[in-house]
Design brief:
The protein has 445 residues and is an alpha+beta fold. It folds into three domains: 18-73, Uridine Diphospho-n-acetylenolpyruvylglucosamine Reductase, domain 2; 80-190, Uridine Diphospho-n-acetylenolpyruvylglucosamine Reductase, domain 3 (2-Layer Sandwich), CATH 3.30.465; 193-406, FAD-linked oxidases, C-terminal domain (Vanillyl-alcohol Oxidase, Chain A, domain 3, 3-Layer(aba) Sandwich), CATH 3.40.462.10. Helices cover 29% and strands 24% of the residues. It is built from 13 helices and 20 strands. The strands form five sheets. An eight-stranded antiparallel beta sheet has the order 16-13-15-14-18-19-17-20. A five-stranded antiparallel beta sheet has the order 6-7-11-9-10. The structure holds flavin-adenine dinucleotide (FAD). Flavin-adenine dinucleotide binds at residues 22, 53-60, 64-65, 74, 94, 116-118, 121-122, 124-126, 128-129, 131-132, 175-176, 180-181, 306, 310, 312, 400, 402.
Length: 445
């Protein structure tokens, strides 16, 4: 480990030559910390470094953002570069925050119709990891990228567009391994409004109904609540911009959900069986009312503020295997026979098949299931992560690249048949492994 020679941030997590992920679970020493403001500065940083990783807002759980001698903080590279009103295309620098991108799009009457439930991530970080939302249009965010410029390991700049089908399919979700995204062009859709209804539904009912909901609604998300027999179902329907909706808010005390969860799961950290009680109390307090809201996809469905008291995993499975998988998952997680005391909620979302080589939805309609612990410092002991992973692997599940998982190259290449093509391409573009860190080397070298 060596000490920093350059540190442009005051943040204690990045100071003193130690890079830290948002919740403090991944830490690395570094030698050079650069904050490029231009494409030329990205180029010279890559040329000068023997090992380099670019990162955005450090909100990934997997060890994919640092671990190299030089680090490139992309967050200061964040302007709008160009727009084309006819095709609704906006070109931005990749360090732009997603919240800023959305504001830019909405101010033009545009939107990206599938948003993750977090707006603090950077565009580059979200694209690079296959970050996604849920149905209606239901694609990973990177599917809306129609062109990009990347800085490759030899320090050259390359441009790709929709015509470069194979290259774009590899690049869209590429973890910064093929190059650093410089500018990216997203093709937007017309802005729309949703009427969103959220209410608790018994497991057997939502399981019977979700396929129909996917046909009938423009937004479908289920926050599954293990040990309670319920899921909090969130359904959205497009409405005209001037349609009035009789809104119904959650009780005011709901804004304390995070603190109450934190408190209950702190107790559960010491007495794991208490998780069952905690989940039931949380359901009664915070997941028992019906709310109705109206807004844009961003306004009505994306969480705007977050603490860093979480650690996340997420797995996905083909839509046509979900029922079978879920009955096993529910039986295991609701049981007291194993040590997997799962915290709530577990986020169930839906993606349409795509052609992006490393997308969770590569060539299959997909259901994603999140798994969280509210005690991030005890994440290594949280058995639900391991149990969920084992079950999903039995059903050819794929992990989220940015989140926590243990599977190695052999398991991953079985569920991502293009992984070996990706590795060959990576070796061609970066023969010296300039963009690899220790974690990524195990999978991609
Ligand atoms: C509370 C929370 C909620 C979340 N919700 C969702 C969700 O709803 N849906 C979902 O899919 N994911 C979700 N995520 C995961 C999140 O979207 C990803 O971890 C995302 O990558 C974080 O973006 P970031 O800017 O922090 O990137 P970082 O974590 O800083 O970087 C992620 C990866 O992107 C690479 N990278 C960053 N910038 C560039 C660039 N310019 N060029 C090339 N590579 C680059 C990095 O090298 C790294 O490999 C959530 C995470 C948290 C913590």
């Amino acid at each position: 480990m060596s000490t920093a020679i350059h540190d442009t941030r005051n943040s204690s997590s990045a100071g003193n030559g130690v890079w830290s992920s948002w919740n403090g679970l991944v830490k690395h020493r570094y030698e050079r910390y650069l904050s490029p403001a231009t494409e030329e500065e990205i180029v010279s940083a890559v040329r000068d470094a023997s090992r380099i990783r670019a990162f955005g807002n450090r909100q990934s759980s997997a060890d994919i953002g640092a671990g190299t001698e030089t680090l490139l903080d992309m967050t200061g590279y964040n302007s709008v570069v160009a727009e084309d009103p006819d095709s609704k295309e906006l070109t931005v620098e990749s360090g732009m925050r997603l919240s800023t991108l959305i504001r830019e799009l909405e101010s033009r009457g545009w939107c990206v119709p599938c948003l993750p439930d977090i707006d603090t991530v950077t565009v580059g970080g979200a694209l690079a990891t296959g970050t996604h939302g849920t149905a209606g249009d239901g694609h990973i965010l990177a599917e809306y990228m129609v062109a990009c410029r990347i800085v490759t390991a030899d320090g050259s700049i390359r441009s790709y567009g929709d015509d470069d089908t194979e290259m774009m399919a590899a690049l869209r979700c590429s973890l910064g391994l093929l190059g650093v995204f410089s500018t990216v062009t997203l093709r937007a859709h017309p802005l729309y409004y949703l009427r969103v209804v959220e209410e608790p539904v018994r497991d057997e009912v939502w399981l019977r109904s979700y396929r129909r909901w996917l046909e009938e609604h423009d937004f479908v998300r289920i926050l599954w609540l293990p040990h309670t027999g319920y899921g909090q179902v969130i359904l959205g329907d497009k409405v005209d911009g001037d349609t009035q909706v009789r809104e119904r808010s959650a009780p005011r005390y709901h804004r304390h959900r995070r603190e109450v969860s934190k408190l209950l799961y702190r107790i559960a950290g010491r007495f794991p069986r208490f998780t069952v009680t905690a989940n039931r109390w949380l359901r009664r307090l915070f997941f028992s009312s019906r709310t109705v809201t109206r807004g844009t996809l961003y306004g009505a469905t994306v969480t705007k503020s977050r603490g860093s008291t979480l650690e996340l995993a997420e797995w996905s499975v083909a839509l046509d295997r979900f029922d079978e998988l879920f009955s096993e998952l529910k039986a295991q997680l609701d049981s007291s026979a194993n040590g997997a005391w799962a915290h709530i909620p577990m986020d169930v979302r839906f993606l349409r098949a795509d052609e992006t080589w490393l997308s969770q939805a590569w060539q299959r309609d997909t259901v994603t299931v999140g798994c969280v612990t509210r005690n991030p410092q005890r994440a290594d002991e949280y058995e639900a992560f391991d149990l969920v992973e084992q079950i999903f692997l039995r059903y050819d599940g794929r992990p989220h690249w940015a989140k926590r998982f243990r599977a190695g190259r052999s398991e991953l290449s079985r569920v991502w048949p293009r992984l070996n093509d990706f590795i060959r391409l990576r070796r061609r573009l970066d023969p010296g492994g300039r963009f690899l860190n220790g974690y990524l080397r195990h999978i991609f070298e």
